[in-house]
Amino acid sequence: MSTESNEKGLTATSEPDGPGLPPEAAAPADPRRWRILAVLGLVQFMLILDVTVVNIALPRIQDNLGFSGAGLAWVVNGYVVMAGGLLLLGGRLADVFGRRRLFLIGVVVFAAGSIACGAATNPATMIAGRVVQGVGEALTAPAALGLIALMFTDAKERGKAFGIWGGLAGLGGVTGSVISGALVDLVSWRWIFFINLPVAVVALVLVPMLTSESRMTREHVRLDFSGAIVGTLGLGGAVYGLLQVVSHSWASWQVLLPLLGGLALLGAMVAIEARSSAPLIPLSFFGNRTRLVANVGTLVSTGGFFTYSYLLTLFEQQVLHYSPLTAGLSYLPFGVAIGLGIGLNNALMPRLGVRVTLTIGFIGSAVGLFLTGMLDVGSSYAGGVLPGMIILGMFTGVAIPASTSAALHEVDEQNSSLASAVQNVMQQIGAAVGIACLVALALTHATDELRSGADPAVASASGLALSFWFGAAFMVVSAGLVLVLLGNPKAAEWGAPKESPAAA
């Protein structure tokens, strides 16, 4: 069997899950690994930040660019559909053609989209820029996490690296609202996009200096892209259909046509990949129970987590009448709590293993969402918003690195970027499902309350509270899946890559 070495001296074969190397045969740790983690983490922070940073700025964008109410949703949806649809393809392209190369290309694409958004003078330009940003994330995020998975080979260090990575992702989601509120109130909404450019420049300069290229070995001259392309179209269609639930009923053709069409294409992808002699997404990758359960848990739990900030922002501005700046600043304790949770994860996971740690994280997050669901029109920030926020933030910090470790469990060099892409896809789809279901639930319940004669503010608060409780139920379901179905090997084995065999 032929092999080839990458620039770090590692070798790989074309088999997705080969037997592991003995410890003495493993490559030494790269001395640059913590510096490259800092740079890649900064880019991940930027990517996650851009998912949430537009929420508070949407009213100003609508006024300045003349968006219709329905069209404004595409400032968010254009990004989510492209990122969610292309992540699997982006992850596999990174494995095949080089993770560093795809990362740098993705950063350039993302920066170009940011410039287009910041300079937009009409709705079409803004939506096009957001679409380009989504493509950039699909290329960048899986390549970055794939690089980290390969550079941190020690299980303990790898857990810390995933904790930092997950923490930066969580902080990016939280601080998006803070930064957006400050820039919208004090400068201009356009700067929520222009602030990405310095980060992109830093990454383009430092990443080539700090990391070497790595890619999987290919025995076949021609790679089969058909399955990945069909899968990308299927994911894009499914995500698009789910997002339509916010403005249309589940039984409408606007929801069913893209959703069922997307699911049909995903089924076709499975059939194509099963018959392919050189699949870009080998079906054997999904045969690992640990990774499968972790990704399903991520899918369900993300629906509750990402919808939290969306719904709470609406609650603070529509019910409690916070300004954009005040609403943004209100999330600062959330970021602090996530950081504390990551520290708690570092103490728990080596002792308890991922199954117990992840279950604790999901159950604690459910408690935080349940408490948030008790908000009403008379709630204060300190006594109403803050308790649920702190509990949710802390246990989210516990869950994120544990979930990442499980999702990358025993992933070898061949599939590191694909594995990170799968988890990112689960997060994107989970966010889309959560927003589609929970926002629709909040609106429907509020409408029913209004018809019963309730005050508009009371009706809105009641609908949002019900959605928070359903978000808590999502977390409980995730905890149950993990507790019942996830294995619990020795803590030192969690997240450890299954090395590809060395050349004879």
List the helices and strands and how they pair.
Blueprint: E1 4-5, E2 11-12, H1 33-52, H2 54-65, H3 69-72, H4 74-97, H5 99-118, H6 123-151, H7 155-186, H8 191-194, H9 196-210, H10 226-243, H11 253-275, H12 289-319, H13 324-329, H14 332-372, H15 381-407, H16 416-451, H17 456-485
Antiparallel strand pairs: 1-2
Helix pairs in contact: 1-6, 1-7, 1-9, 2-7, 4-5, 4-6, 4-10, 4-16, 5-6, 5-9, 6-16, 7-14, 7-15, 10-11, 10-16, 12-15, 12-16, 12-17, 14-15, 14-17, 16-17
Report on the architecture of this protein.
With 504 residues, this protein is mostly helical. The protein has one domain: MFS general substrate transporter like domains (Growth Hormone, Chain: A), CATH 1.20.1250.20. The chain contains 17 helices and 2 strands. It has helices at 33-52, 54-65, 69-72, 74-97, 99-118, 123-151, 155-186, 191-194, 196-210, 226-243, 253-275, 289-319, 324-329, 332-372, 381-407, 416-451, 456-485, and strands at residues 4-5, 11-12. A two-stranded antiparallel ribbon has the order 1-2. A hairpin with a 5-residue loop joins strand 1 and strand 2. Helix 1 (33-52) runs antiparallel to helix 6 (123-151) and helix 4 (74-97) packs antiparallel against helix 16. The longest helix has 41 residues, at 332-372. The termini are close together. The model is unreliable at 1-26, 489-497 and 499-504 (pLDDT under 50).
